[in-house]
Design brief:
Blueprint lengths: L12 E6 L5 E6 L3 E8 L4 E8 H10 L1 H8 L7
Antiparallel strand pairs: 1-2, 3-4
């Protein structure tokens, strides 16, 4: 599975690591992804999602059903 948030679509970012002498080398800033089991009330079951930590905070505010609809994610297929 790719390192991508299932609700927000966040992926890695290309960046530079800058040393003290200002030499720049390329690095990859990965997304902080966590496996999260979320109770889906409408489906009456647990859904296991790979989410970024920012998405987990937003999920607590909006709710699973609204957030999945906004992301275009079909919860029945999970």
């Amino acid at each position: 599975m790719s390192r991508k948030c299932q609700l927000t679509g966040k992926t890695a970012n290309n960046a530079y690591a800058v040393s003290h002498s200002h030499r720049r080398t390329k690095k990859l800033q990965e997304v902080n992804l966590q496996w999260k089991r979320v109770w889906w009330a409408e489906g009456k079951r647990w859904v296991k999602l790979r989410l970024s930590t920012k998405a987990i905070k937003t999920l607590e505010k909006k709710g699973l059903e609204a957030f999945a609809k906004e992301a275009g994610l079909n919860l029945n297929k999970l």
